[in-house]
Amino acid sequence: MPVQPLLTLRGVSKRFAAVQALMDVELEISGGEVVALMGDNAAGKSTLVKVISGVGPADKGVMEWQGRAIQIRRPQDAHVLGIATVYQDLAMCDNLDVVGNLFLGREIHRLGVLDEVEMERRTRELLHTLSIRIPDVRVPVASLSGGQRQVVAITRSLLGEPRLLLLDEPTASLGVEQTGQLLDLIEELRDRGLGVLLISHNMGDIKAVADRVAVLRLGRNNGLFDVNTASQEQIISSITGAADNSVAQRTTHPEETWP
Amino acid sequence: MRGRGWGRPTRTRAADTPPTDSPRSDSRQSDSSDPPDSGRSDSRESAGRRSLTEQLGAHARAVRRRLGEGDLGPVPVLLALAVTWAVFQGLNPRFLSPRNLSVLSVDIVGTGIIAVGIVFVLLIGEIDLSVGSLAGLAGAVFASLNVNLGMPEWLAVLVAVACGAAAGCLHGFSFAKIGVPAFVVTLAGLLAWNGVMLYLLGTETSINFSETGLVATLTSRYFDTVVATYGVAALATAAYLLVSCRDRRRRAAAGMPYGPMTRIWVRTALLAVAAFTAVHVLRRFAGVPLALLIFLAVIVASDLFLRRTPYGRRVLALGGGPEAARRAGVDVTRVRIAVFMASGTLAAVGGLFVASRLTSASQVPGSGMLLINAIAAAVIGGTSLFGGRGSPWSALLGVLIIQSIASGMALLGVEPPIQFIVTGGVLYVAVVLDSLARRAAVARGRP
């Protein structure tokens, strides 16, 4: 594992009007590791993903990329760093075809004219190396099934060699087989040195691929576990707030331990 | 064997990395039991040499899919246009005479160019109600600068168009940056710019300008030399054929599936028939109008912009989902402002054509009919009110239908009230079809 973590968050807070969505959240993701982010509904998981991906920047807090302080104010900033995201709602333009969605915001063009042939060729190549079957890459994504859309969104995140992958509930609309394939893929990516932040409710998935589990509860850190040593019960009780273990105590403020 | 589930993404992309079979991924190998031909149909080797039957089968599937989605492209609109023309021709044989068609081909230009601007705005799922007033304003600005202040025509034209662009920019800024709904901003614009126009026109209520000047020429100039008419038609057809063949060759070279050559020939032939018939008919009266050529140029340019440039792609993306576009790194604010600027600019240009037709700047464009016709043209032509679906060509088809109805009923001596009712009815049908198509898409699409 590299000495320098890929991404470090310290004291990240975000507030939506009266709701404190994130409060002093800390998180570290290194290259070549899969960090699972768990938490109950409204724990702030998706908000944290949006903070990192630049869609909803934090109000305050420090973000470091390979030890260098950075600001991510816009999605473009995250793209430049090599942070790719699969959002829970997939964030696809329904009227554009698969190729259009994959290359949206980073179109290949020659002298200002879209190079559709090259984009389609790369799309097919990428789908092919991932062994994904999409019957026609020129149909609007609105006409694809939920699973296919999910797969396209994941494919899009892999375009352009990301360094850090944020996956917000990527298995939500996948079948058993596809989920297995996705978990394989995540392991492959980790072995290639990518950092992966995986949000999931599925303890099985997380036990299978994650190295560490970070738990959020009500917008705050509520524990950090090593998947190999922590028990499932420990993690679950940390999610639900029933736990009062040493790890939770380290990062949790006293009033948070109340049920 | 390729196609073993998508847990092996690195084969070609990271060939230099060492084998990476962790025990955990091995244990799950059995789960990933895709059919062995997974991904094959797209692969390079087989793509280039699909048999004819396969190609036809794929084509038939595509047609069936589009039928099911209510996505028929321009076919329903062309049918509607054919029906309109057939009915009026049946009622009055002068309807399809070269003379009437020639007049029609110039009458559509002003409204049509404004409708192209409306198409841009509709594509991002918004509406611009100020285009009629901006068209009137452009005419008034031009006439007052040129006639009252003696400014050279070309400069007055530039200032008039710049006024449209600036007003559109203001609308776009208020909408995209401040967050005022586009409907309200442009409604305010409708009133305010109409007021400015009336102020400029003053007590005279209209300003006549030179009948031989630059602006008047826009709609009074006709070409009837063989080179300028059939030549342009031949050039357009040849350009289409060349671009189609080049695309096909590039796809073949890249090892991707490509359409049959017959399809290109059929489309080229259809285009040639349409172009040469139009030229032939128009030459029998006065020739090909300059205004029509400019209109077609605006449409082709807009269409190429939307379909072939990254900027156009972003406009379409906004119609498909502003949030998704934003997350993909599209500068949503800038695209929105640009779209309203385009709409304002095209409205001003269209306004100059309307003024040119009358050789005077008057209150006519601001009366509201121009706005209604422009929006109706875009929607009747097949551009969706819900954003993300449409093409500048719909402006041409829609305005042809609207103007044909108006022209046909004028020939028949139908009173304006009936004309309004009929045009309104056509617009209603178009909007209903649009909504049904959208509902079908939603029902078929994901939750």
UniProtKB/TrEMBL annotation, chain A:
The keyword Thylakoid does not apply. Residues 7-243 form the ABC transporter domain. It holds the Pfam family ABC_tran. Keywords: ATP-binding, Nucleotide-binding. It comes from the Bacteria. Signal peptide: none annotated. GO terms for molecular function: ATP binding; ATP hydrolysis activity. This is ABC transporter ATP-binding protein. It comes from Streptomyces humidus. The lineage of its organism: Bacteria, Bacillati, Actinomycetota, Actinomycetes, Kitasatosporales.
From TrEMBL, chain B:
It comes from the Bacteria. One of its GO terms (cellular component) is plasma membrane. The chain crosses the membrane at residues 72-91, 103-124, 131-148, 154-173, 180-202, 222-243, 264-282, 288-306, 335-355, 367-386, 393-412, 418-437. Residues 1-57 are annotated as: Disordered. It is found in: Cell membrane. PANTHER family: ABC TRANSPORTER PERMEASE PROTEIN YPHD-RELATED-RELATED (PTHR32196), XYLOSE TRANSPORT SYSTEM PERMEASE PROTEIN XYLH (PTHR32196:SF32). This is Xylose transport system permease protein XylH. It comes from Streptomyces humidus.
